[in-house]
Write a structure and sequence with these properties.
By secondary structure, the protein is α/β, with parallel strands linked by helices. The chain has one domain (about 20-285): TIM Barrel, CATH 3.20.20.150. The chain contains 9 helices and 12 strands. The protein has helices spanning about 30-35, 55-65, 85-100, 125-145, 165-175, 185-195, 200-205, 240-255, 270-285; strands at about 20, 40-45, 70, 100-105, 110, 115-120, 150, 180-185, 210-215, 220, 230, 260. An 8-stranded parallel β-barrel has the order 1-2-3-4-7-8-9-12, surrounded by 4 helices. A two-stranded antiparallel sheet has the order 5-6. A two-stranded antiparallel ribbon has the order 10-11. The chain is globular, with a radius of gyration of 18 Å. The two termini are about 25 Å apart.
């Protein structure tokens, strides 16, 4: 389908290779009232699992004007327990209702049995966990009837028995499961500081054809520790170091749909638009 123009519906909901914004509740009214020129928006899937109510109705109104990407944080693909079928069923219903351009989740786990943590916990990078993740991603794709994206997560510890570098694990997962990658450039930078590796090693290891979306966000620095620790807090503008890495990423893999994430201490919508404009400038100059 041909785009009808920024701020108007794209009938097939496809996500353009432009900079979008993560839509959070404080900005919904402004968005629907003014219809600002934003190419696309991303929301957290779990916020809209209710079959009725104001939240899903507002999302349907937004979807009438903008392409939507659904980004999940709770499917816990890497859990040692069975895949959360009820969660997957609710995601399937939301996908059917909203018809998003992209659907994504994290390379992480967050629960065991009836216990679910509000966290994206790291996996050991081993052949065993890789096989488990391939199985889970395949099951999710079969249930949803579509290819999904998986995102490299920020991590604050490493497992001593990991045998595969993170970047090799991420690429192998996408290749074996037949999924695509949501490359979070901020997370790559955060992990490179936390675990002492060159972030370009990660970027250079990822085949461009596997990448379908990029995330950018701001981190926080934890002081008072023996070594620096960066936290993927999503409560700051994108830092210069991450902008530089993003530019190197775009030079390496080309234009990609790029999202500005901001989840705490949320500023005015215009601030997010300014961040998205910076990403556009980098893509245009590549």
């Amino acid at each position: 389908m041909v785009a009808l123009g920024v701020g108007h519906p794209i009938p097939d909901g496809s996500i353009p290779e432009q900079a979008g914004i993560g839509l959070r509740p404080p900005h919904v009214a402004h968005l629907l009232t003014t219809l600002p020129p934003v190419p696309w928006l991303e929301v957290h899937s779990e916020n809209f699992f209710a079959a009725g109510g104001e939240m899903i109705q507002l999302l349907e109104q937004v979807r009438a004007h903008y392409p939507i990407s659904l980004h999940g944080v709770g499917l816990s693909l890497g859990t040692a327990e069975a895949l959360y079928q009820n969660h997957l069923m609710q995601l399937q219903a939301l996908v059917t209702r909203i018809q998003p351009g992209l659907v994504s989740e994290h390379i992480s786990w967050g629960g065991v049995g009836s216990y679910h943590l509000n966290a994206l916990l790291p996996l050991p990078y081993t052949e065993e966990s890789l096989s488990l993740m391939v199985e889970r991603v395949d099951a999710a794709q079969q249930r949803l009837g579509r290819t999904i994206l998986v995102e490299n997560a920020s991590t604050y510890l490493e497992y001593t028995h990991s045998t595969i570098p993170e970047w090799e694990f991420v690429v192998a997962l996408a290749q074996r499961a037949g999924c695509e990658l949501l490359l979070d450039v901020n997370n790559i930078y955060v992990n490179s500081v936390n675990h002492n590796f060159d972030p370009l090693t990660f970027i250079d290891a990822v085949p461009a054809a596997l990448v379908a979306e990029i995330h950018l966000a701001g981190f926080s620095r934890k002081e008072g520790l023996p070594v620096p620790l960066l936290i993927d807090s999503h409560d700051h503008p994108v830092y210069p170091e991450v902008w530089h890495l993003y530019q190197q990423t775009i030079d390496r893999i080309g234009r990609q749909p790029t999202l500005i994430e901001w989840d705490a201490h949320i500023p005015d919508f215009a601030v997010l638009q300014g961040e998205a404009n910076k990403a556009e400038e980098i893509m245009n100059a590549a």
